[in-house]
Amino acid sequence: MTHGYEMRGSYTAEKNPAQARFGRIFPKAAVGKSWPDPAALGKRGGPMDQGTSHGQTPAPDGALGTQDNPSIPAAFTYLGQFIDHDITLDPTSSLERQNDPEATRNFRTANLELDNLYGAGPASHPFLYDRTRPGRFLLGTLQGGDPADPAQRMDLPRNAQDVALIGDPRNDENLIVSQLHLAFLRFHNAVMDDIDIGLGDDGFSADEGKFDRAQRLVRWHYQWLVLKHFLPATVGPGVVEDVLQNGRKLYDPNNKAEEAFIPVEFSVAAYRFGHSQVQPGYLVNPGFGAGLFPGVINAPIVPRSDLRGGPLSAREVVNWNLFIDTGLPRGGGTRFSALINEKLVAPLLNLPLSVVPVLSLPDGDPQRSLATRNLMRAAAFELPSGAEAVAEANRLGVNIPLVPSAQIWSGDLQPFASHDVPLWFYVLREAAVLADGKHLGPLGGRIVAEVLIGLLQKDPISFLVAKPDWKPMFGRVTGDFDLVDLLRKAGMAGT
Ligand code: HEM
Hints:
This protein is mainly alpha-helical. The protein has helices spanning about 40, 75-85, 95-100, 105-110, 115-120, 175-195, 210-235, 240-245, 265-270, 370-380, 385-395, 405-410, 425-435, 440-455, 465, 485-490; strands spanning about 20-25, 70-75, 260-265, 280-285, 290, 335-340. It has one domain: Orthogonal Bundle (Myeloperoxidase, subunit C), CATH 1.10.640. A hairpin with a 2-residue loop joins strand 4 (about 280-285) and strand 5 (about 290).
């Protein structure tokens, strides 16, 4: 299964959140809502179309485009996608289900614990791991490369039909998230190497086995990265601190749910903000740039002329310096994510067969538009409108201004002015109107911060609960750890 199928785990959404993986934080939409037509709002050439073309690549001079967001690096778009794939893992569509139909409770929780990386661990998912190097992940070799040469192990491991052997197939949906997944695999392996030579002891527990320690350290460094870097950049100033100091007000504020769950307002609306951060194409390295997806939904993947997932050769390896400030000169390309607003790029408005593998949706079908799909999901899940969500958030004690409908539906959105505002669309417009698209607005930011922080707070083995004063050990700056540190430790940047 890939990204385009049923909302994973959603069948449990209406059950008691204590048993469900999905739940709600706001009441459903009031009856009689008048939603805009998803196909009209989300179509190519419609008001959500950024006006880019398929195959569009960034200017090699690295000039800032009008849709670039200098506050958020391009790499964070794909870190955001990676995080989504970590926390919304669904037993019905993942490797887990095949081995463990009765999935244990632990397995079914939605935590920031990298099950998209580790699967069920070396004993249950041995095909993810390297039999010749205990405790390490198996890595893949670049096309045409020598498998014996460690420098060529820069792709995900793949089976004989080039399907990536990873904990979540969606992490091979595009080349950038695929290379980020590789960075996490290599980061874990580097931590194992340290532990093997007696390094990597943070004094937490003397009883941990080597693999368990490596896994915990990787998870905690990742959780730090999410809490201290990804979230603050994404949700705007002060929000993370407020949630940590004054508590959650929206997401399970009284800790009634026994386990972490994903609210549909997060997965179907607020956290889909990332779709507007995607650029039409990327300069992947100084010698190779391409559009994200092809213009024709079933275009051949080889030879590679776009950035769909799948095997790659040496000329297509991501140079992370073009995606985040690694301290090296920029040298052109796209270092930034796109602004958070209602505009999506062409490749997302006609998703290829590799992303939505539904043959009955031909080229140009409205349901190949990610915008249309998001709007349809919101209606299907009876999500509240933006105004209803703001009113409820205020009732629950978060002080949030409402962006009036007239301001939401301004400019070329005016023809939709008589309609209620779907929550995802509100979150995007709110970011554009109140934060110039640099970060999420008050409602979107609050939902995203509360859920991600809540997932950590509801996880007894997160660093926030198990050792709140813990500090990372693999950063350039003592006591800190960011994405560049992870890439460096993985041997993929700034070396
Ligand atoms: C190239 C980039 C991306 C592509 C092609 C993509 C594509 C998709 C597709 C096809 C869906 C399913 C839509 C549906 O049928 O309901 C989806 C769901 C979703 N996406 Fe993305 N996405 C991308 C990036 C992102 C980013 C950057 C984020 C967040 C930062 C994100 C967050 C989500 C969430 C929360 C869901 C719903 C839950 C889930 O299935 O995980 N996506 N995406």
